[in-house]
Structures are given as structure tokens and as C-alpha cells.
Amino acid sequence: MSISSQRFARLLKQALNTIKAREDKNLEIIQDELGHALGRKNGSAVRYWRKGHIPADPEDVYLLSQALAARGGLTQHQVEQFLRCTDYPNAAHQVAAQICEHEKDVVQERSVLLELQPFVVGPPITDPRQFYGRSRELERIFNNWQGVPLQNIALVGPRRSGKTSLLHYVRHITTTPTHRLRDGQRADWLKEPQQYRWAVVDFQDPRLVKPQFLLPHLLRELGFPVPTPCIIETFMEVMIDHLERPTIILMDELAAALAAPELDMAFWYSLRALVNSYANGRLAFLLTSHTPPFEIAADVGKPSPFFNMFNLVELGPFAMDEARELTNSSPLPFATEDVEWIIKHSGSWPVLVQLFCNERLLSLEKGQSDDSWQQAALHHAKPYAYLLE
Ligand SMILES: Nc1ncnc2c1ncn2[C@@H]1O[C@H](COP(=O)(O)OP(=O)(O)OP(=O)(O)O)[C@@H](O)[C@H]1O
Ligand SMILES: [Mg+2]
User: Based on the domain organization, do 283 and 325 belong to the same domain?
Assistant: First the structure.
């Protein structure tokens, strides 16, 4: 056995044993679960690799290190060593950082676990446990990504309707373990979620409307190598070379991107060419905006045919039962008439349900028995009056 194979076998065994100790599970079960995560029927490939046979396909190496890292079996440094002893073709350091990014989120999430607010008023929801409803919209979105060609989605809704929250949820829900969800929260929207690659772009970040930042950002998010120089031509080449797995790029606040002079017509044409000519149906975009993309694009003088390829998913208020579920999640239960008041006056818009629930909870915590919380709630809701018109 070569030194690389020995090192590979040692790291893999060590990772399996770490997972075994963390999860208190039998090694056979862990190997089967890893096999499933890599799209196989059982763990026989993992058993074979454990004996020092380095996987021939770099894709298997990538997925294996991702699965081991996600379960705490490998640290970022170990992922890098793991990739190096397999002669992984791409920059091991960068790929390891990308693979472990999710693990960092998990650690961060653990550290804030105790501080989760019962109601979130203002910022987008980023923890899936605080996300409610939207089952019809999720169904429509994930239906577009069940098979090839993956289809493009424009998530369109007024300000504060919940677009960014839904975008984050779509990105994370299919790979969030059950113990980090509420009871009964659905996560099985995709058949093989581990196969999908994701990138998120927030165009409100002023750096990301400049190609010199945006293009490497996209490649890093997707775990692809970043060429030097990273310009649209080299970006396209890397994308074309790496689009074997389903790849979804989520872009928040399209209007900000369209307003940016650096993201010109040529840029949007390149994305269209990638989707239509090179991706074999394995690349799709989800954009958020206040009005349909082709309308904003035409308004700002960038009427690219890229924007004609989107299926609209419109975001309105919660369904009644979804608004009730959020209202009933209060740590101090609300009286039925309070729940009804909240549903009626919020029009079931998530931001208003959150705001009104928060006011009610604060008043209960202070032991107030009058209805002054309703006056406060209506006062704070004034900036959102447009949602109720
Ligand atoms: N599915 C949801 N579950 C619970 N709360 C939600 C949900 N969607 C939105 N909200 C609440 O609504 C508020 C606005 O959400 P978000 O920021 O996602 O909206 P947006 O449409 O992206 O707004 P903007 O147009 O200003 O960017 C958040 O404070 C959040 O708490
Ligand atoms: Mg937003």
C-alpha cells in the first residue's frame, strides 16, 4: 500500500470512529448511511475505501469528505489532509474551507441555540426552526428541481413579504438534520439533497454587484476552483467543466444587481448561455424581486432574454393555518380571542403576525391584563400598512 493510501485509510478510520463515538452508533450503520449519502445502496464502497483503496472518482472523494465533515468526523484541517492524500485535482485548501463552511454554521448555530427569540421582527429568518408555513410555495419551488432540466424561479413579493427568509430556508432545509428542526417540520423536499450544490448571492452587498468579487464568490460557494484571472470567460470555463451535479444559484434582490452598471448585458447573456447551452439542464437560478424580473430588467434598460426563462412564484400572506401555527408557538400561550385578533389585523402577513405576537408576548410577560398591547401593535404596524391595502 502506498503512503498516500495508508494515510487515507488512517484518516477515514479515524473519522468513522469519531462519528461512532459522537453518535453512539454501530460502525456498520454509519458506513451504510455514508454510502446512502453518496448515492449508493449500502456502505460496501465505504468498507472498501477504508481498507486503503482511494476512490477513483474525485466526486466520491468530495462527497465522502463532505459527509464526514458534516457529521463531525473530520475537521477542516483533516479534510484538507484527506483531499491531499487522494490527489484531489482542485486546490485542497479552498475546497476544504468550502466543505467545512456548513460545519461552521452548525457550530455557530449551536452557540446561539439558547438565544433563539420566540418571535422575529425585522431581520430575515435564518434558523429553520423559526421559519413557519409557506408549504405551497415550497412545493412549487422544489417541484422545479426534481429532475432535469432544473427550472428557474422568480420569487416575487412586496417588501417584507418574506422573500429572503424563504430563500435561506430553501438553501438549508433539505440538509438540516431533524434534531435541528421543530417536530413535524418537513425536510424531504429533494430525493438526494446531498447531490445538490448551492450558491447564495445577496446583491445588497455592494461587493457582489462587481464581477471581480461576484464571480469568485459564486465559484467558492459552489466548491469550484477559482481561476486567475477570474473574469467572465474563465468563470464560464470552470462552470462548464464542473456542472455534473444539480447546481442552484440563489440570488436575492435582483433590482440591486440590475441597477449596477458593472453587471451589464454581456453578463446576463453569459448566464443564459450557461443555462441553455452548457449545463445539460443541471443549472438553475432562483431570484427574488418585488416585480417580475423581465419587467425590472426592461425598466432599467437591460431587457436580457435571461429574464424570460423564469417561473413566477408569488409571495403573499401566510395561509390561515400557517399564521395560526406561528401564533400558537408562543412560549406563553395566547387566549383564543388574542389569536383571532392577531390573525384578523395582520392579514396573515408574516412580518405583522411576528410583530403582533411579539407585542402580546411582551404584555403577558409584564402581567398586563388590558388591551394596550393592541394599540402598541397597531402603532408599530404603520410602516407595513401597504401590505394590507
Ligand atoms: N416563513 C416565515 N416564518 C416566520 N416569519 C417570517 C417568514 N417569512 C418572513 N417572516 C418575517 O417577516 C419579516 C420579513 O422577512 P424577509 O426579510 O424575509 O422579507 P423580504 O421580502 O426579504 O423583505 P425585503 O423586501 O425588505 O428584503 C422577517 O422579520 C420575518 O420575521
Ligand atoms: Mg429581503
Answer: no
